[in-house]
Design brief:
alpha/beta
């Protein structure tokens, strides 16, 4: 954290302080070289979209992102890069089975005040969980409550980005492949390197 006091400016608009100061004249070529070693060049726009969603705290295209590939293709490294850029405190790391399954009334409270959720291995989600995740991405604002708390807090999925890494999507995803809303909400980014 920089603890720099800065005056109000049109140059920034965030609801939480990010862990870096922006120098508009600098270019971090080492970081971009690393990113291009991990992903395919044609996927750079998707990575930029994820970073923009996380910085602005919005998800205008109502998508979640799945990094998919065989083991050792640096999917987790890509997620760690996001935590370096955006700040680890701006992410939750909730297992989708916890917040998409039954008896999950407190689970979305972990998302309040965060920019995104990172998690590995989603290939074992049930059809019902996949449908719940689809409905949650870009859905209406939900009232959520934390355990042992008397107040309810709003969680707005349109201001949140889900990012998952997995080796396989499993059988349940393939059975839903004809569902257009699944295709438009789940952005699958292959990791092959």
């Amino acid at each position: 954290k920089t603890f720099d006091k800065i005056d109000h400016s049109w140059k920034y608009l965030t609801v939480s302080k990010l862990p870096f100061s922006v120098d508009y004249d600098t270019r971090n070529l080492k970081l971009w070289k690393l990113i291009l070693e991990i992903i395919r060049p044609q996927d750079i726009k998707l990575i930029m979209e994820i970073i923009w969603n996380l910085i602005t705290g919005s998800n205008p295209h109502k998508k979640l992102f799945v990094f998919m590939g065989i083991p050792d293709t640096r999917k987790t490294t890509m997620m760690e890069i996001f935590t370096w850029v955006i700040g680890i405190e701006n992410f939750s790391k909730e297992d989708p089975k916890k917040f998409l399954g039954k008896n999950n009334q407190f689970s979305t409270s972990q998302f309040v005040g965060k920019r995104g959720n990172l998690f590995d291995e989603i290939g074992n989600l049930t059809k019902e969980m996949i449908e719940n995740q689809k409905a949650m991405v870009g859905g209406i604002t939900q009232d959520t409550e934390a355990k042992n708390a008397q107040t309810r807090q709003p969680f707005d999925p349109k201001r949140f980005t889900f990012i998952y890494g997995t080796n396989t999507l499993g059988n349940n995803f393939s059975q839903l492949a004809d569902d257009k809303s699944i295709i438009t909400r789940f952005e699958i980014i292959p990791f092959e390197k």
